[in-house]
């Protein structure tokens, strides 16, 4: 027999559940407010004690209301937070099971794709997905099997909330860890984010790719174009993460393609490098003839990356020389329209000149004694003394460099 106290507790639970069942939106919102305030951080035994061993009855009502209302945002944020109290409760695995049985993962992922919902609601959805992923490998697989990687990658690329994007990054990294069946899917999902318009999403995707690289091992050839593409970003933090990823990729089979691509970026087509503004344009921020375009930004970033990679590995440096990096760097140095290209290319060129005598001789021949001496005296600023005539001569004189280097290398081999 139940005690008088137990009977009273059960009666209170029934009254509470009846109150919820009969309540309309405003009243339910108040109930959720009180629940969040009173029960956040509670364990499963504590929740069961408070609900007279009937906490699952309230969770069932919450999930039922979620299924009916998530598409039009009825108290959605509070509802998700309330469900989160159950899913995060210590020893509350049964709550998680009950939520999954009603299709909770699919609902949470669908929330991410509903454009009319608030960013805060979607962030709460990501938090619940993280709680599910934290429960173990099988739960990570369930999220991935429900097209979760695609949904999360799309949300990362389109979200306007930096906090939500960071939560998605953590979740994707979690899905890519200790989840061998789907880790490649997560990796490819992150690669798909790179061409997006959000600099923050690009930065986070690059960071996570770097973390995952050792786990995944093989880097697909489809990675080359997107990684080189983000070098055109005007955001230094994106370029930094791209270069860090390039460093990690030098140990993988995509290295030749990446190095070849970097060298190619040093010589952008001149006609495409600038776009001329219409004199009648009313937009003061429109790109004008003298403003550097993304191709020049990409050129400067490539020149910087080449220097970083060459200094990391003598073998990589030699491969770059074979790919005609020296004339490419000199083209960038001669780009009077973009000082950043000149600066980064000059610093990288300095390394090759000091490290490889054959490069020094070829560069000296191309620059001439006076300009070469300026270069040797101050590699970081000498290009500021270069006039248009010298720049044109520099670019025209580099044609013989590959042939000179090849001749010298063959002579050294004798």
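Q: What amino acid sequence fits the structure above?
A:
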């Amino acid at each position: 027999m139940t005690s008088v106290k137990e009977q009273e507790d059960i009666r209170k639970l029934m009254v509470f559940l009846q109150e919820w069942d009969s309540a309309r939106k405003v009243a339910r919102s108040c109930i959720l407010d009180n629940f969040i305030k009173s029960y956040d951080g509670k364990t499963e035994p504590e929740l069961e004690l408070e609900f007279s061993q009937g906490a699952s009855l309230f969770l069932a009502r919450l999930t039922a209301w979620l299924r009916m209302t998530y598409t039009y945002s009825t108290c959605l944020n509070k509802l998700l937070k309330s469900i989160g109290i159950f899913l995060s409760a210590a020893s509350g695995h049964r709550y998680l099971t009950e939520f999954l049985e009603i299709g909770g993962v699919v609902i949470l992922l669908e929330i991410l794709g509903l454009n009319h919902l608030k960013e805060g609601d979607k962030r709460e959805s990501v938090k619940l997905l993280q709680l599910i992923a934290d429960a173990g490998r099988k739960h990570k697989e369930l999220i991935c099997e429900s097209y979760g990687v695609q949904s999360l990658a799309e949300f990362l690329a389109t979200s306007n909330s930096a906090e939500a994007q960071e939560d998605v990054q953590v979740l994707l990294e979690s899905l890519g860890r200790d989840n061998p069946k789907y880790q490649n899917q997560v990796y490819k999902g992150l690669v798909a984010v790179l061409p997006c318009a959000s600099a923050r999403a690009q930065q986070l995707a690059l960071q996570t790719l770097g973390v995952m690289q050792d786990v995944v091992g093989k880097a697909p050839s489809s990675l080359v174009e997107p990684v080189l593409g983000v070098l055109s970003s005007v955001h230094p933090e994106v370029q930094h993460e791209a270069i860090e990823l390039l460093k990690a990729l030098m140990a993988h089979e995509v290295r030749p393609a990446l190095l070849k691509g970097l060298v190619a970026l040093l010589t952008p087509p001149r006609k495409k490098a600038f776009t001329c503004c219409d004199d009648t344009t009313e937009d003061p921020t429109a790109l004008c003839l003298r403003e550097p375009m993304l191709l020049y930004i990409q050129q400067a970033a490539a020149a910087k990356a080449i220097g970083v990679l060459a200094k990391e590995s003598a073998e990589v440096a030699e491969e770059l020389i074979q790919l005609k990096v020296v004339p490419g760097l000199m083209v960038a140095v001669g780009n009077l329209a973009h000082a950043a290209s000149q600066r980064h290319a000059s610093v990288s060129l300095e390394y090759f000149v000091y490290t490889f005598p054959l490069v020094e001789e070829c560069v000296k021949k191309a620059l001439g004694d006076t300009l070469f001496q300026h270069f040797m005296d101050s590699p970081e600023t000498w290009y500021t003394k270069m006039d248009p005539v010298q720049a044109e001569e520099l670019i025209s004189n580099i044609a013989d460099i590959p042939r000179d280097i090849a001749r010298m290398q063959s002579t050294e081999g004798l």
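Q: And what stands out in the fold?
A: DSSP finds 25 helices and no strands in the chain.
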